[in-house]
Design goal:
This protein has 109 residues and is α/β, with parallel strands linked by helices. It has a single domain, classed as Glutaredoxin (3-Layer(aba) Sandwich), CATH 3.40.30.10. The protein is built from four helices and five strands. It has helices spanning 9-17, 32-44, 63-73, 101-108, and strands spanning 4-5, 21-27, 54-58, 81-86, 89-95. The chain has a five-stranded mixed β-sheet, with helices on both faces. The longest helix has 13 residues, at 32-44.
């Protein structure tokens, strides 16, 4: 899995300015539910179009970036959480056991 580490607010602005789709996966390294959601997402990753950037946010290490995600994309913080961004706007958000690369891929297709 080619995760793009999301470690700075500047990267969020880049995602916001991007045309097309991006995914942000917010993960808590202290949560077993988050670990299971991450494994499931990685298992299903092939369902996503090959060129879809997938950002990985360790929200324990980068809490300030996680807070900025909520603010910038107008979503309520959850953990784990998946956001599908299209042309700078969050068009789909899900969390916990509902996280699915296949569901995200169906929204992109």
């Amino acid at each position: 899995m080619n995760w793009i580490p999301l470690t700075s607010p500047e990267q969020l602005q880049e995602i916001k300015n991007n045309n097309g789709y991006s995914i942000i996966f917010k993960h808590s390294t202290r949560c077993s539910i988050s670990m299971m959601a991450k494994r499931k997402f990685e298992f299903e990753r092939e369902a996503l179009p090959e060129n879809t950037p997938v950002y990985f946010l360790d929200l324990i290490s980068y809490r300030d970036v996680s807070n900025k995600v909520a603010e910038l994309f107008h979503i309520h913080h959850e953990s784990p959480q998946l956001l599908l961004i299209k042309d700078g706007e969050c068009v789909y958000e899900t969390s916990h056991g509902e996280i699915s690369a296949e569901d995200a891929a169906s929204m992109i297709a």
